[in-house]
Amino acid sequence: MSRPPSYDRETALEKAVGLFWHKGYHGSSMKQVEQALDMRPGSIYAAFGSKDELFSEALARYTKEAGEDLASHMAGYASVIEGLQSFLQKIARDCSASEQAPARACMIVKTLLEANNTHGALYAQANRVLSAIEDAFTALLEKAQRQGELTPRTDCRRLARLLQGQLMGLRSMAERNLSATELEQLGQDMSAVLERYRAEN
């Protein structure tokens, strides 16, 4: 009878997310992976198959948590536009929080840039995730349009892509070590863009 694994898979994945988010794929050696997960090489390979597969699972975990964060945030707003504006400002505040330093750079975007010419499967996964995020923003904006918050002429897909581009830019700007005030101002300026698309009441 086989023995149950002596590790908790969810805890191991959470630790892997923290490591890869902070250092990226290439910046994380297998020795660092072993130390972060507190697992021996054989156990890691038996549990996850390879470093690539572990990274892929960690990226999926990160993506799931990010999606849940957006959904949870939006659930607190009757107005989609106000919810999105608040979400943009929240991301800006998170980027400025020293205890959340890894949050400055999105793990998905880091993977897209890092794996472009080296790991086709991881690059494709990151690209699919970004497309899904764009879809989520588009769905929210279409809901806002149905609720009369956005003008009928608003191209929701195009606006969703703009929002995603702004978030990617914000996280990159945070790597410049801008002050909390400067980052919060960026978040406010980004959220103000949505006012241009509001329907007149």
TrEMBL record:
It comes from the Bacteria. Keywords: DNA-binding, Transcription, Transcription regulation. Residues 6-66 form the HTH tetR-type domain. The keyword Transferase does not apply. InterPro entries: Homeodomain-like_sf (IPR009057), HTH_TetR (IPR001647), Tet_transcr_reg_TetR-rel_C_sf (IPR036271), TetR_C (IPR011075). Residues 29-48 bind DNA. The keyword Transmembrane helix does not apply. This is TetR/AcrR family transcriptional regulator. It comes from Marinobacter daepoensis.
